[in-house]
Amino acid sequence: MNWAVIFEPDTLALYAEGLVVTLQLTLYSLGLGAVLALACALALVSSRAWLRWPAQAFTYFMRGTPLLIQVYLIYYGVAQLEWVQARWDDVWPWTNFKEPFFCALLSFSLNTAAYTAETLAGSIRETSKGEVEAARAMGMGQWLLMRRIVLPSAIRRMLPAYGNEVVMMLHSSSLASTVPALLDLTGAASRVYADFYLPFEAYLFAAAIYLCITMCLLGVSRLVERRFLGYLAPRKH
């Protein structure tokens, strides 16, 4: 193995560039996905069929198809349609589809939104009936009840599952390397492999970086769970 090439300044700069793109895709996708997931989760638990059915169809499709296919559908499908390309330069939001980063970000955001929405909807459905009845006895309306009681309780209980989703989103961001002209961490490793024919060194170094980020995310996740789910821990006598 020739590790000296990996630690050359130019190679490390390439990995650093890919790392920035990977972190941007992960964080932006999680942020946008969380907003979409909240709206979708509320639709999933709604008693109105015209809200519930489209949300169910969305989550069913996004969770039932591979993320790689979704990336291809947006970048090689939607972004390549003639009527979309005709609006690239003057009509928003179609102007964004000429950017590889936007296409990857959109596919990742929609994917994580579907999984997070189902998790949040499940937590909402599992809210204790006692909490709901107590809030209604206090005179809370449906939206006030949802905002003050149901959602805070549901979000706290979904934290362990959401921590796993954050890690999965980080790992899934490696699929951005399949989008041309977009250099993420995996794409940087692929370029090093192509330039120096060092497959083990290139991908092992990328794997080590992913592992370090994953450990940091898991550590933050545990701290957040300890802070907001401490009341569920067994009490010492």
Give a topology summary.
Blueprint: H1 3-6, H2 9-44, H3 49-64, H4 67-77, H5 82-85, H6 100-125, H7 129-137, H8 142-157, H9 159-172, H10 185-196, H11 199-228
Helix pairs in contact: 2-3, 2-6, 2-10, 3-6, 4-6, 6-8, 6-9, 7-8, 9-11, 10-11
Question: Can you tell me about this structure?
Answer:
Helix content is 75%, strand content 0%. The chain has helices at 3-6, 9-44, 49-64, 67-77, 82-85, 100-125, 129-137, 142-157, 159-172, 185-196, 199-228. Helix 9 packs antiparallel against helix 11 and helix 10 runs antiparallel to helix 11. The longest helix is centred in the first third of the chain and has 36 residues, at 9-44. It has 237 residues and is mainly α.
Write out key terms for the chains shown.
flat, 237 residues, mainly alpha, 11 helices
Residue-averaged pLDDT: 90
Instruction: Please compute the radius of gyration using only Cα atoms.
Output: 21 Å
Return residue spans where pLDDT drops below 50 for at least 5 consecutive residues.
none
Strand content: under 5%
- Characterize the main sheet: none
Structural class: mainly alpha
SSE string, helices as H and strands as E: HHHHHHHHHHH
Overall geometric form: flat
Helix count from the secondary structure assignment: 11
Summarize the amount of helix as a percent range. Answer: over 70%
**Overall strand count:** 0
The N- to C-terminal Cα distance equals: 56 Å
Please outline what is shown here:
It contains 11 helices and no strands. The protein has helices at residues 3-6, 9-44, 49-64, 67-77, 82-85, 100-125, 129-137, 142-157, 159-172, 185-196, 199-228.
